[in-house]
Design a protein that fits this description.
Elements (H helix, E strand, L loop, with lengths): L2 H10 L19 E5 L2 E8 L4 E5 L13 H4 L4 E5 L15 H14 L5 E6 L1 H12 L4 E7 L10 H9 L2 H7 L3 H8 L6 H12 L7 H4 L5 E7 L6 H10 L4 E5 L6 H4 L1 H13 L2
Helix pairs in contact: 3-4
Length: 276
């Protein structure tokens, strides 16, 4: 996948898509703020049942799940969160996969969630893996899409994008992303500082240490698009590393699973989360 294509898939997460698809409108369901480690974190809730925590990827927001939330909320209490610095949430002092995981761990406690399921996409996938290792008594089932343990998971085009990422690339090639960020961002957030923090996180050589992987007890479904920026080989490595996990490759699908294949994701995802 070339840089322009990846930038486009990230951009469409921020736009409204209505062709034959039921969606939720970002910010339309009485979203709330919660203070975690002196950071205001925005979230929205939909439906009732077992809590299902949705964790989005880098540069985007809750809106990436707008196509899957309607059906998921018929089965679960869907809790979708803007990670710090993203969407409507306040920027944190720093950003790393472990620090983002610590926010979600605290979020679980603040909402007094007894046990829950988690869906993580891209960066949210790494966070979901770490969260399952850190909170095995809480996290029971996990679906990750487009996630990886470390830099070896990227395809060559994925590496080119990650290593070339910068505020200048965003400003010059991402169309209305900057404008959209300012329209939604928490007051005081600075998009350049946010991009630099995100770049620092992406430059971490290891996203999920293997000693964390060994602690996982939750049931896992690993999803990779056959044209993802994460290689199928790495998806298979994750499958072999997480005991008892399941592995699914979606055909004719890029990194943007929740935009391109929402109905298929919901069918597979709901079956995985509800089966005995």
């Amino acid at each position: 996948m070339k840089k322009a294509v990846l930038a486009f898939t990230l951009f469409i997460c921020l736009t409204r898509w209505t062709v034959g698809q039921q969606i939720i409108q970002y910010g339309s369901n009485n979203g709330k703020y919660i203070s975690i480690r002196n950071t205001k974190v925005y979230y929205e809730e939909y439906g009732k049942g077992t809590p299902l925590l949705l964790i989005h990827g880098g540069t985007v927001s809750i809106s990436c799940f707008r196509k899957v939330i309607p059906d998921l909320s018929k089965q679960f209490r869907v809790i979708a969160v803007d990670t710090p610095g993203h969407g409507r949430s306040q920027q944190a002092d720093s950003m790393s996969y472990q620090s983002m995981t610590d926010y979600f761990s605290k979020f679980i406690d603040e909402l007094k969630l007894d046990s829950l399921y988690v869906v993580g996409w891209s960066d949210g996938g790494e966070i979901a893996i770490l969260l399952s290792a850190d909170r095995p008594e809480k996290v029971k089932r996990v679906i990750v899409s487009g996630a990886q343990f470390d830099h070896s998971g990227y395809t060559e085009s994925g590496k080119q994008f990650i290593f070339g990422f910068s505020p200048e690339v965003v400003e010059n090639g991402w169309g209305s992303w900057v404008k959209n960020y300012h329209e939604n961002a928490y007051k005081g957030n600075d998009w350049r500082d946010f991009i630099l923090d995100l770049k620092k996180m992406w430059d971490e050589k290891t996203y999920v240490p293997y000693d964390k992987v060994k602690k996982i007890t939750a049931r896992f479904l690993i999803i990779i698009g056959d044209r993802d920026m994460i290689s199928i080989a790495h998806g298979n490595e994750m499958y072999n590393s997480i005991k008892g996990s399941e592995f699914l490759v979606l055909p004719n699908t890029t990194h943007s699973v929740f935009n391109e294949r929402p109905e298929l994701f919901n069918k597979v995802g709901i079956e995985f989360l509800t089966k005995k």
